[in-house]
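[job 0412] stage=fold_complex status=start
inputs:
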Amino acid sequence: MEKFTTHTGVGVPLRRSDVDTDQIIPAEYLKRVTRTGFEDGLFAAWRNDPAFVLNQPAYAAGSVLVAGPNFGTGSSREHAVWALQNYGFKAVLSPRFGDIFRGNSGKAGLLAGRVDEKVVQRLWDHLETNPGATVTVDLESRTVRAGDGPDAIEDSFDIDDYTRWRLLEGLDDIGITLGHENEITSYEAQRPSWKPVTQHAG
Amino acid sequence: MGKTLSEKVWDEHVVRSVEGEPDLLFIDLHLIHEVTSPQAFDGLRLAGRQVRRPDLTIATEDHNVPTVDWDKPIADPVSRAQVETLRTNCAEFGVRLHPLGDVEQGIVHVVGPQLGLTQPGMTIVCGDSHTATHGAFGAIAFGIGTSEVEHVLATQTLPQARPRTMAVTVNGSLPEGVTSKDLILYLITRTGTGGGQGYIVEYRGAAIEELSMEGRMTVCNMSIEWGAKAGLIAPDDVTFAYLKGRPEAPKGAEWDAAVEHWRSLRTDDDAEFDHEIVIDAAEVTPWVTWGTNPGQGAPLGGTVPAPGDFEEETDRVAAENALRYMDLAAGTPLREVHVDTVFVGSCTNGRIEDLRTAAAVIKGHKVADGTRMLVVPGSARVRLEAEAEGLDLVFKEAGAEWRGAGCSMCLGMNADTLSPGERSASTSNRNFEGRQGKGGRTHLVSVPVAAATAVRGTLSSPADLELVGSN
Ligand code: SF4
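[job 0412] stage=fold_complex status=done
writing structure:
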């Protein structure tokens, strides 16, 4: 997993609340056998609508999604996180996330930061007035920044310490476990010889 | 204080234990199939990782495979892609695979025990909730998600919080004609589908000890249907006799060393469980489900309940919805419910003993007009064994369809599905809405009930067949 310290990218205002994982990626897109390529299913129901934010050229290269409350509720599918990442999103900001989605995001390396609802409103206004404007998500200081001058937006976001540590270090679950490889190896050395194996030498 | 069986097995697998963190458990056996593994392998590939212990990993094809024309390419492109991806992944990462057409191919939970890979005291995982089946041997066995599959592939370990322990003691003996399937359906009806939530359950008592390994697997298989994390049974001479001589079972001095250790895998007399349930086996009768979850069951001799029979509001609503979906009227005797399709198979009841039982019931009878019967062995080896015993002929003579090995109609993923509105009596484990095909209506039943139902065309037990007579 890549380390995440700070990211600046085009902000995408998704003016919707209660976007569940079926809306992020419908079930019919789950048949793929890879971890990549899910971007075509992202927000599938809305992608035919020319007015939908990602269909506007200024936002097409977006990497910071700014969504309304209750983002990522519903089914536990990890594909929702993959679809956002495959599209190019590095961070999602929302006042409130579905629990499983937030957990899955942390595991896969997508930053899910909780920001105040008022800040989301200001970000939406700013990003709509200035299509293609960037948002900076600074994980070290847990701050989100956009715009400059007197109207600049700067506020903190919430993320639990453990997830923050993992993202900063670029550690997924497997990476963390492999940090204990010596213990695994010494465990393996003392397993009884009669335990079954599926492959036999020679 | 002593330890319970599951605590003993757990403790033997702790690689690392730190206050405030889940235990890191070593996994003795990782079973793989085509549906839940592709993204796990792809994740390894993206991260440049290897399979740590291909020698503790084994794969087979089951959920998507056809049970007729299995020598031809799989018709459905998505199913075919999953199966082909499994083959590529196993070749690339050096994992042993038993593909369609191989004599050891079959439902992953039938294959492990039949090869002798499933042994007492092991930790066994698979990206499939019915992994609990392997608990019948005194192993801790549970289902995992795709990210966890990747974790086990890469590290051969899994971080796990220690579950609470429960004992289900079944005293006495099951009455004549009552099977372990009836027992587990009865237990789920009594405790509800959440009754086992958060527990590793140990099934014990005289009635459990009297079960064959097949019968024990049926019980453990359905642990997940009452919410348990896993279910297990202490290994004993029945277990050892089943294992002895199987291809991957220990041999010679290794066998003796293994058995000596396995005999220690019993709950100590002074051990305490977090929760206990006691059942009198004499109370269990042939049991069938009338609703859309495995806890909505009743005695075959009873009637379809009315929503008003339930005390809790949520149960009343659930019953109302279930009756509507199942198109059943409260008060209907269950024996009068007409069934379109009978399915004998799945990892719950697709083993050789199940097929012998079904054949014994149906021998000399015919499948009723207006009813079809599918008999699907749980593995290719079970199919060959059954054919060597002539069971296939018994089924064919009765007018049943004799198929190839796979999950088949247990789930609506391959070509074997119910049509909308079609009603089945099924020896599988889930009667959820649409589980066997969109709009299909499922009654979960034991093997003898399934076979008798095929003959009469309505839910029945073998005792009812005397009324039909044989031909
Ligand atoms: S037979 Fe049914 S329950 Fe068993 S593994 Fe196959 S699909 Fe799952």
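[job 0412] summary: The CA atoms of residues 11 and 64 of chain A lie 5 Å apart.
[job 0412] exit 0
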